[in-house]
Structure formats: C-alpha cells, structure tokens
Amino acid sequence: MTYGFRGRGLRYAAAALSVVAIGAAGSTTAYGGGGVGTGNGGNGDGVFPLPKGKYTYGDGLGAGRGHEGQDILTKCGKPIVSAQQGRVQTNKFQSAAGNYIVIDGKGKDKDLMYAHMKKPSKLKVGEKVSMGEEIGKVGDTGDATACHLHFEMWSNPGWYEGGHPVDPKPSLKQWAKG
Ligand SMILES: [Zn+2]
Predict the structure, then answer these.
(1) Whole-model pTM above 0.70?
(2) Distance 37 CA to ligand 1 centre (A)
(3) Low-confidence spans in the chain with pLDDT less than 50
(4) What is the CA(118)–ligand 1 centre distance, in A?
(5) How far is the CA of 114 from the centre of ligand 1 (A)?
(6) Any residues with CB less than 8 A from the CB of 21 and at least 6 apart, and which?
(7) Is residue 4 part of a domain?
(8) Domains in the chain: how many in total?
(9) Which domain CATH number covers 141?
C-alpha cells in the first residue's frame, strides 16, 4: 500500500479491515511453484513474487480508495522474490508502506514496488536484481493489519518519476501460471 505517500494514511485503518475480510472469505489459491527447473522459471516477462505457499488476493488497484497496487495475503516470513530484473531504486521505511523496496526496470520494463516487508531488504540502492532473486520476507510493517505483500507496478518513466500505477493483477495471474 502507499496510502501515506499521498496523504491517504487516515483512510488505511478502514481499508485494511476490508482486506482482512476479503482474506477470510475469499478463495485461496495454491501455488505450486512451477516453471522449469528451479520452480521459478517464470512465464514470459516475470515470475510470481511469492514463490512458496498459499496466498489470497486482497484489494486491487483503486479499490474505491485510490489504492495503488494489489494486495496479496499470505503468511509473514514467506520469501518475496523480484518479479522482474532491474536495479534497486529505493529501499526505505515509511510509516504507511513499512519496509518497502522499489526495483527500477530501467526503462525496458515497469518499476515494481513491494511493501510491508518484515525487515528492510538487504539489497543496496543501485544494486542489480535478477528475476526470481529473494528481496525480502512478507511482513505487516507500516499500516498493515494483516501479513501481506502490497505490490505496485508503475508505467515508465517509473515510480514517482512521472509514471503512474497500473493494474498488476493480469501480470500476476500470468506469472502464477509459470
Ligand atoms: Zn495494499
């Protein structure tokens, strides 16, 4: 989530409750890994950012509250991997996003942002990241009432660099088939 980045922090408490409700009532999808060899072979241009365990989709783009990404509910501590290759643009803590990281696709691809990580990513700003490389663990830092990955996809030129958030769910669904 990014509510706080644009002054939406106050809305988050209510919004998060709806995420929990969706998590409790929604369907659960088992993701068996897939792909070639490593289980992270990917499908076309990326890999699903949560390679292990069950997950449930929470709120998507918009969600009636200017939500800028897709929430994916799963257990805290599950590894998060980089869905695409790129370079670390930002690795910070923010009161709403918690520990978050932005991977810049460097013009070729979109910028991807991962929030609420359990701990700060060990990756350094400017460091190259491979597709499928672990970047952190699922957490509930920042304004989150349940363990989940908040995942954003930004069009070029990128995250808060003039791009705008696009719906990542079609890509996530494609990558999950990996
Ligand atoms: Zn979110």
Answers:
(1) yes
(2) 32
(3) 1-42
(4) 15
(5) 10
(6) none
(7) no
(8) 1
(9) 2.70.70.10
142, part of any domain: yes
71 CA distance to ligand 1 middle (Å): 5
- The range of the structural domain enclosing residue 101 comes to 9-177
Peptide bond into 120 cis (omega under 30): no
To the nearest whole number, what is the mean pLDDT of the chain? Answer: 80
pLDDT in tens, 30-43: 333 333 333 444 45
Give residue 97 CA to ligand 1 midpoint distance, Å.
Answer: 8
Ligand 1 centroid to 36 CA: how many Å? Answer: 30
Q: Which residue do the tokens 């009432």 mark?
A: 145
From residue 108, give the alpha-carbon distance in Å to each of 27, 46, 61, 157: 34, 13, 23, 10
On whether residue 3 sits in a domain, the answer given is no
